[in-house]
Amino acid sequence: MPDPRSPDRTDATAREPIDPDVDLRQAGTGHRGRGDTTVLAAVAAGGATGAAARYLIGREWPAPAGSFPVSTLVVNLLGCALIGVLMVLITEVWSRQRLLRPFLGTGVLGGFTTFSTYAVDIQRLGAGAHLGTALLYLAVTPIGALLAVWATATATRRLVNWRIA
């Protein structure tokens, strides 16, 4: 099997940058490096920060029972939009910052977005005879999340390339 990082690859994935935190040669060996503790600490600190921010937003902007959960939708769409920006910046601008993606991407934004609450909201809306709202929310969230990542990644990539040119 050819090395997925090989410049000889001609498929679409060859144009995408490889995550700097993933060493594909070490996959499946079961060995852990000394840096794992540092990465874990970065993810944990970021996750606590993101989860606290999400909690405070939910506390200040609660959704009444049976209503469309706007605060959860906004948190998830904002988090996905920020992930789009972050991934372009990390892969194309700040690629040598080893702990930035684990801290911000996995930690802060992983803790901030809340797709488990999304699932619980859908279940509660359906169980509470608000099936139309549940189905709308079920569709709007993943479509909006994908569009948010795509739009912000595209815009960020264009801005980065414009500044470089």
Summarize the structure.
This protein has 5 helices and no strands.
Structure description:
The chain is mostly helical. The protein has one domain (32-164). Helix content is 65%, strand content 0%. It is built from five helices and no strands. The protein is globular. The two termini are 37 Å apart. The mean pLDDT is 84.
Radius of gyration equals 19 Å
Task: Write down the domain tally.
Answer: 1
Number of strands: 0
Mean pLDDT: 84
In whole angstroms, the N-to-C terminal distance is: 37 Å
Helix count, per DSSP? 5
Helix content: 55-70%
Low-confidence stretches: none
Could you outline the blueprint of secondary structure elements for this entry?
Blueprint: H1 36-60, H2 70-92, H3 100-112, H4 115-127, H5 131-164
Helix pairs in contact: 1-3, 2-3, 2-5, 4-5
Q: What brief labels describe this structure?
A:
single chain; mainly alpha; 0% strand; 165 residues
